[in-house]
Please model this.
Amino acid sequence: MPILPTSSASAPSATKTARRVGVIDTARGVALLAMALYHGSWDLTYLGLADFDLFGDPLWLAARTGILGSFLILSGLSLVLAAEGGIDRRRFLRRFALLVLAARLVPAWRHAWPCRSAATRCYA
Model:
């Protein structure tokens, strides 16, 4: 099943419109919502506004594992589907550079924002 439609009279020839796979989009939306809720819970604990046992409660550990696993599986599946027609080297390198930059900003942010609660793991 091709992801990109074949050229037809109704489709503009200059642009390719990606056809969406509804099940994958829905699963990705649920995974992102679950990740946002988990991170929101972590932030509430970090700021001292809630007392969730994110590192010891088996339910939180299972939720974290499930969210991470679904996110990684959906990311891999999306990469396979996106690369079906070939990989645009320039777009790939640009996105990879943004990913590396974002990954480097995380430790810099953690260094600038000191730990405030016992729920966070500080690496001093």
Observations:
- Residues 22-46 form the longest helix (25 residues).
